[in-house]
Design goal:
Blueprint: E1 3-12, E2 16-28, E3 38-48, E4 52-53, E5 56-58, E6 61-62, H1 64-78, E7 87-92, H2 102-113, E8 118-121, H3 123-134, H4 136-143, E9 146-152, E10 157-163, E11 166-173, E12 180-182, E13 188-191, H5 196-201, H6 214-232, H7 239-242, E14 257-261, H8 265-268, H9 277-280, H10 287-301, E15 305-306, H11 314-321, E16 325-326, E17 340-347, H12 359-367, E18 376-379, H13 387-401, E19 408-412, H14 417-428, E20 434-437, E21 447-450, E22 459-463
Parallel strand pairs: 1-7, 7-8, 9-14, 14-15, 17-18, 18-19, 19-20
Antiparallel strand pairs: 1-2, 2-3, 2-4, 5-6, 9-10, 10-11, 12-13, 16-22, 17-21, 21-22
Helix pairs in contact: 3-11, 6-10, 12-13, 13-14
Protein name: Ethanolamine utilization protein
Organism: Sporolactobacillus shoreae
Pfam family, one: EutA
C-alpha cells in the first residue's frame, strides 16, 4: 500500500521568493518474499505560489516580518498547515545568502515551515537543486550525455553538470541580472562590488547616479555571456574572469548539452530583442539584456540550447521535490530521538581504500574536532560484510563513543546498517541511543538531517551549511 507525504520548497532569492507544495507517493517496490525496498514512486506539484519580490529592510537586511507574512499567506492559499508537512527545504540563494540577518531568517523560517523542513543556503546546493528542477539531470540520464545547467538569478549564476543522471560538478559565479539596477528615471541606482574589476578592465563608464550608455551595458552583458560560453566550452578564463567564481572553481568538464534556468532564462528563450536602454531597464535591472546576450552568443557559437522544464521556478521545484532521499529499509533507529538536524558528517576514511583494522584510530582522529557535538560517522563499508567484519566495525565505533555522552549515529553506503546497528546496540545496551542507516552517500563537510520514519525507512537530507562566524 502506498503512503503519501507532503513536501514544501521555499526559495528566497536575490530578486524573488517562491513557495511550492509537492505530494510524494512512497511505496515498497520489492516483492513479498524479498527485503523491503521503500522508494519514492511519484512526485506531484500540487501548488505553486505567486512569484514575489524578496522583501528587504535595506540592501544588507532581509525583512523577516514581511517574509513570514508572505509565506504564511501562501500556506493559507494552498490550504496547507505546517503540521501537514513531512519534509522539504527552505533555501536562501544568491546575494540574499550574504545578507547580515540571513542565518537568523533561515532559522526562524525553519520553525515556521515544519518540523522536518531543512533550512540551508549555499551556491553549490542551489546549483544542484536548480539542475534537478530544470530537468538537466533527467535529460543527462535519458540521453547518456553530459548536460550543464546554468541557473541565472539576480545575484549569482549557479551551474551543475550531470553525466548520465549523476552530479559530477557544481559551482557558482558572481554574475546575475540585478548586479546593476536602475531607478525609474533610467539612472544607475546600484552596481555590485563583485563586478567592479570587470567594469574597470572593460573601461566602461558606469557610475551610480548617472544615466548609462546602452553600448556600455551591452559590452558588459556580452562579456558575461562570453564567460559562460567559455566555461561551457572548457576554454581558459582570464584572471579577472576567474575572480568571479564563488568559493571554488569548476572542474573543467566539457558538456555536450547546455540549458539555462532562473529568472534571466525567461529572456534567453524568448524572442524579444533588447536594443535600447528602455528595453534593458524595463524591470529595473540588466536581466533582459543579459539574457538576450546569452541567446546571441550561443547562436553565434553554433551551440544548441535545450529549453528547460522549469526556468524561474527551477530552484524552488528542486528544493521541494529533489532535496530528500530515503535510506535503505534494513536499518536501525530509535524513533524517540528523531528528527535530528544539522549533524556534521565525520568521514572515517579518505580516498578509495577502507582498512577496518585501523577504524577506531581513524575515528578518534577525525572526531577530535567535535568535543561535545553530535556527529554522524560515515563510511562506505564492505558490500557483503562477514560477521567478524561487522563485529570489528562495531567494536571500533563503541570504543570511541565510550567516553562521549552523544548518541551513536552511523551512515553507511552499502546495505548492512541493521546488522551493524544491532551489533552496536548489543554492546551499549540502554546506555546510548543508536541510529544506523544505509544506502546514503555523504562527504566530509556535509551535514545530515534524519526525519521520522516512513514505512521501514527514514527521510534523509544531505546539505552543506555556509554560515560561519
Amino acid at each position: 500500500m502506498a503512503d503519501k507525504i507532503l513536501s514544501v520548497g521555499i526559495d528566497i532569492g536575490t530578486t524573488t521568493t517562491q513557495v511550492i507544495f509537492s505530494e510524494f507517493t512512497v511505496q515498497n517496490t520489492a516483492s513479498a518474499f524479498l527485503v523491503p525496498k521503500v522508494q519514492i514512486v511519484g512526485k506531484d506539484i500540487i501548488y505553486r505560489s505567486e512569484i514575489h519580490f524578496t522583501p528587504l529592510v535595506s540592501r544588507e537586511m532581509i525583512d523577516l516580518t514581511k517574509l513570514k507574512e508572505l509565506i504564511g499567506k501562501e500556506y493559507v492559499r494552498a490550504r496547507i498547515h505546517k503540521e501537514d508537512i513531512s519534509t522539504g527545504a527552505i533555501i536562501i540563494t544568491g546575494e540574499t545568502a550574504r545578507k547580515e540577518n540571513a542565518e537568523k531568517v533561515l532559522n526562524a523560517l525553519s520553525e515556521f515551515a515544519g518540523d522536518f523542513v531543512v533550512a540551508t543556503a549555499g551556491a553549490d546546493l542551489e546549483a544542484v537543486l536548480a539542475g534537478f528542477g530544470s530537468g538537466a539531470a533527467a535529460v543527462s540520464r535519458a540521453a547518456f550525455r553530459k548536460v550543464i545547467n546554468f541557473d541565472i538569478g539576480g545575484g549569482t549564476t549557479n551551474a551543475s553538470v550531470f553525466s548520465e543522471g549523476e552530479l559530477v560538478d557544481s559551482f557558482a559565479l558572481d554574475i546575475g541580472g540585478r548586479l546593476i539596477r536602475f531607478n525609474k528615471q533610467g539612472k544607475v541606482a546600484y552596481i555590485s562590488d563583485k563586478i567592479g574589476k570587470i567594469i574597470d578592465v572593460l573601461k566602461l563608464n558606469l557610475q551610480v547616479g548617472e544615466r548609462p550608455e546602452f553600448e556600455d551595458l551591452n559590452v558588459l552583458c556580452m562579456k558575461f555571456a562570453r564567460i559562460i560560453l567559455k566555461i561551457a566550452s572548457n576554454e581558459k578564463l582570464t584572471r579577472e574572469e576567474e575572480g568571479l567564481f564563488i568559493q571554488h572553481k569548476n572542474k573543467n568538464l566539457k558538456a555536450e548539452t547546455f540549458m539555462f534556468s532562473g529568472g534571466v532564462a525567461e529572456f534567453i528563450y524568448s524572442n524579444d530583442t533588447i536594443a535600447t536602454l528602455a528595453d534593458t531597464a524595463k524591470f529595473g535591472d540588466i536581466g533582459p539584456l543579459f539574457g538576450y546576450s546569452i541567446r546571441r552568443i550561443f547562436k553565434q557559437s553554433g551551440d544548441q540550447l535545450l529549453e528547460p522544464k522549469e526556468k524561474i521556478r527551477a530552484t524552488v521545484v528542486g528544493a521541494g521535490t529533489h532535496s530528500i532521499k530515503l535510506s535503505g529499509s534494513t536499518i536501525l533507529f530509535e524513533e524517540d530521538i528523531l528528527p535530528i538536524k544539522n549533524i556534521p558528517i565525520v568521514k572515517v576514511f579518505n580516498g578509495g581504500s577502507e582498512d577496518i583494522d585501523f577504524m577506531d584510530q581513524s575515528i578518534r582522529e577525525k572526531i577530535s574536532l567535535y568535543t561535545d557535538e553530535d556527529v554522524a560517522i560515515a563510511f562506505r563499508g564492505p558490500k557483503s560484510p562477514r560477521y567478524l567484519q561487522i563485529k570489528k566495525m562495531a567494536e571500533s565505533i563503541v570504543s570511541v563513543f565510550e567516553d562521549r555522552a552523544n548518541p551513536i549515529i552511523i551512515v553507511v553506503e552499502n546495505d548492512f546498517a541493521k546488522a551493524l546497528g544491532q551489533t552496536i546496540q548489543d554492546r551499549v545496551g540502554n546506555t546510548k541511543k543508536v541510529i544506523c542507516i544505509d544506502n546514503i552517500k555523504v562527504d566530509t563537510g556535509d551535514y545530515i538531517d534524519i526525519g521520522k520514519p516512513i514505512e521501514n525507512t527514514v527521510p534523509v537530507v544531505i546539505k552543506t551549511l555556509i554560515f560561519k562566524n
